[in-house]
Amino acid sequence: MLVNQLSVFMENKEGRLEQVLQTLAEGNININSLSLAEATDYGMLRMIVSDPEAGKTALKAKGFMARLTPVLAVDVADEVGQLQIVLTKIKQAGINIEYVYSMKAGGDGATIIIRTSDLEKTQEVLEA
Question: Which end of the chain is more exposed for a tag (fewer CB within 10 A), N or C?
């Protein structure tokens, strides 16, 4: 399923992550998943949140560089090798995987977030 990811480009300095989280909390926006990739001076925070539009608006109002990025949320069984099966299908279709992170575990499996070079084709491959 296609979902909007809230992406925040921020300085890699003390307190910036806390400011983002506080801003979302003040807007009553729940974080369902979070991934932080850092470089020396800057980081990219990627989140699946309860209200992506409101999150983007709130963060921009506080001076953060925020945008919405379409990604796929894919349910996988909680069994050995299931993630590999999904990623292999994508690779065999000639689609580049840009990044993957886990969303949440629940029930009999987990949800992973995937960004690829062709989300529409990826969705078709995984639904087949």
Answer: C
Q: What is the pLDDT of residue 11?
A: 85
Burial class (CB in 10 A: 0-12, 13-18, 19+), 128: exposed
- Could you tell me the pTM of the whole model? 0.88
106 pLDDT tier (thresholds 50, 70, 90): low
CB 89 within 8 A of CB 125: yes
pLDDT in tens, 23-65: 999 999 999 999 998 777 888 999 999 999 999 999 999 999 9
Which backbone phi and psi does 127 adopt, to 5 degrees?
A: -80, -20
Our CA angle for 90, 88, 7, nearest 5°, is: 50
Cβ contacts of 35 within 8 Å, gap of 6 or more: 45, 46, 47, 99, 101, 113
- H/E stretch holding 7: strand 2-11
Q: If you count DSSP H runs as helices and E runs as strands, how many of each does the chain have, helices first?
A: 4, 6
